[in-house]
Amino acid sequence: MDSILVTGNGPLNGQIPIAGAKNACLTLMPATLLSEEPLTLTNAPRLSDIKTMTLLLQSLGAEVSSLQDGQVLAMSSHDLTSHVADYDIVRKMRASNLVLGPMLARLGQAVVSLPGGCAIGARPMDLHIHGLEALGAEIELKDGYLHAKAPKGLKGAVVELSFASVGATENIMMAATLAKGTTVIKNAAREPEIVDLADCLRKMGAQIEGDGSPDITIQGVDRLHGATHQVVTDRIELGTYMLAPAICGGEVELLGGRRSLLESFCAKLEAAGIEITENENSLTVCRKNGRVRAVDVVTEPFPGFPTDLQAQMMALMCTAEGTSVLEEKIFENRFMHAPELVRMGAEIEVHGGHATVTGVEKLKGAPVMATDLRASVSLILAGMAAEGETKVSRVYHLDRGYEHVVRKLSGVGAKIERIKEQS
Ligand code: EPU
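A: This is the predicted complex of the input protein with EPU.
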């Protein structure tokens, strides 16, 4: 299994291009199932999760071609041949559950494996199920699979989510585009990936209003047509690389970055003493001399501080001046990176959903293990600011969500290389 070797060094300088968003692309791809006509996505990120979704869609009979070095995905669901999302694919990637709503709406039936728990939490699907049931679906759990059917088609309804789940909002929104009548999703998720999905569905002929607010209204239509859509910028990749100069010092321009994607994160970085400048089509992040200040962080649904940047922010706080408290409110088990950071000399105490980090002057390189996608990149960031060498193993997590990570970081001066190992 490959690993990443990072050697701590000085300030970073240069530019990093930011890719299209993994989590937007993973919900835009299943939208192809809603129409017989082709859907083309541009600005797609080159990631293993995208390959997994490609395999899943192909297993359902969709055609998916990866063009222009993977940045364009040309899809067609003209002839679907299956309505079963197999456990072998779903267990690899939870976002596979996003085929449930579209298949149910287009085919009137879907069988989708329940994904099971993962490294960051139990992550049930009750909100997806309740929402689709409100639209008239009959859903039962048999042999670990959700068997969903809507023999008479779906009917619009008011669906109130008890928590603003991203995946449930996406599944219900996609299903509602082809339901009869009007659906209102109350307490909907407001993430930019939801707005991006709504934009794409509108290009396909869907009637959707209110995305980006807690109430989304969808007027069902008889059919959706083909479209071409550009995937929104990956705000989590953006935030991750904004932290690189914040941790190592220097000045880095993030191409394609926009502050509106990450307002609460930017405010925390500024409170910590980092300078952020918004340019026409980029953000420039600069840290001058001296340590950053400790700041407290609470993860929340958008527009709050994203849970997907909590691990990376913790890496920054490890060398901040003072003590910070990071509270994780989205996932119950998302501090697996803390013991690994402690191996690098960080002072962190975890109690339930809180991690208290007392900044140290310098971290020390160590062999560490990635436990999930965001944890793995937090260890790379920590390694870039540590004394000596840090070897991060289990980097297959990283390949799920960060394209060309070694190229992008070494391009701004980081000492980082991938070590191929014989298994
Ligand atoms: N939840 C339920 N019941 C449900 C659905 C969710 O209890 O039916 C709970 C989850 O267990 C979790 C919380 O609600 O505690 C938030 O889950 P949500 O449904 O909002 O998340 P998701 O759709 O499963 C997406 C991203 C995650 C990101 C979260 C939160 C994709 C493919 N994944 O997951 O991304 O952390 O939203 O913003 O869009 C990542 O990229 O590293 C990642 C984990």
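Residues 235-248 form the longest helix (14 residues). Residues 23, 26, 94-95, 121-128, 163, 165-168, 307-308, 330-331, 373-374, 401 surround EPU (CB under 6 Å).
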